[in-house]
Amino acid sequence: xxxxxxxxxxxxxxxxxxxxxxxxxxxxxxxxxxxxxxxxxxxxxxxxxxxxxxxxxxxxxxxxxxxxxxxxxxxx
Length: 76
Ligand code: HEM
What we know:
Blueprint: E1 21-22, E2 25-26, H1 30-47, E3 52-53, E4 60-62, E5 68-71, E6 74-75
Antiparallel strand pairs: 1-2, 3-6, 4-5
Bound molecules: protoporphyrin IX containing FE.
Protoporphyrin IX containing FE (HEM) binds near residues 21 and 29.
């Protein structure tokens, strides 16, 4: 479905994801959630503009329905 699916492409133009559900029944808070993530990413990048994974094998993920990174050690 996605080109370069294993990369973070923050301005991905073709982006038909299901994160907020789809169709007639979808997340009521999607616009608030998008604003929150924008503020979080902007604040992070202001404070830590340059960073890299300290140890890719140390990244830990949540399982279950809400998938995402739980622990991402970085170095700046
Ligand atoms: C990244 C953050 C979020 C994600 C990934 C997310 C995802 C989802 C998903 C997948 C659904 C189910 C849609 C369906 O039934 O098909 C949903 C429903 C819902 N979400 Fe979110 N959500 C997020 C943040 C929020 C926030 C911040 C709020 C409110 C402050 C919110 C309020 C709701 C409500 C009220 C529903 C139920 C809508 C309904 O049943 O009609 N969500 N969300």
